[in-house]
Write a structure and sequence with these properties.
Keywords: Membrane, Transmembrane, Transmembrane helix. It contains six helices and no strands. It is mainly alpha-helical. Among the domains are: about 10-85, no CATH class; about 120-155. The longest helix has about 45 residues, at about 65-110. The chain is rod-shaped. It starts with 7 loop residues before the first helix and ends in a 16-residue tail after the last helix. The mean pLDDT is about 85.
């Protein structure tokens, strides 16, 4: 059984109100059908030098096959898909820009903390210099107070009075 359409209300009911698909999908398809009717009416007026009357408009609706609705639905689906792709792409670009701005702002805020960071670095530098100086003092103490094996041997060879005996080459 073929459904006959007599007015735009019939097509609206078919595409939007009674449809199982999204109302937005049906609404876009309805707008496409109405755009075709308006184009037909303009063409009719240009050709016949008068606008179509209500019977002629009703006749136009009745001549629309069910396949015309399917074609309008396909075009509506494509239009909505393109629109959603544009929205998603726009959101991705906007989100990317927001991330870039956040990174730049964070880096600028880090630069704003120069003096506290400078104080920490200065304290670290002074501490490392003090530790290095202490290490040098300890090393200098051991070098200047050298207790070498030769000196230990010399000290063993001393007499209890503190005099040093000559161990090698005793001439007596």
């Amino acid at each position: 059984m073929t459904t006959k359409f007599s007015t735009s209300d019939d097509i609206y009911r078919e595409l939007v109100q009674e449809s199982e698909e999204s109302w937005l999908y049906g609404l876009v398809a309805f707008a496409l059908i109405e755009e075709r009717r308006i184009d037909w009416a303009r063409h009719y007026e240009n050709t016949n030098e008068r606008p179509p009357n209500s019977d002629e408009i009703k006749n136009w609706y009745e001549q629309q096959p069910k396949s015309e609705l399917l074609r309008a639905k396909g075009e509506a689906e494509n239009a909505l898909q393109e629109y959603s792709d544009e929205v998603v792409q726009s959101d991705i670009e906007e989100y990317g820009e927001k991330i870039k701005e956040d990174v730049v702002v964070r880096e600028i805020r880090k630069l704003g903390r120069f003096w506290p960071q400078f104080g920490i670095n200065l304290a670290g530098g002074v501490t490392s210099a003090v530790l290095f100086a202490a290490l040098l003092l300890i090393l200098a103490f051991f070098v200047l107070n050298d207790i070498s094996p030769v000196q230990i041997g010399v000290q063993i060879g001393e007499n209890p009075k503190g005099e040093i005996k000559e161990v090698i080459g005793d001439d007596r």
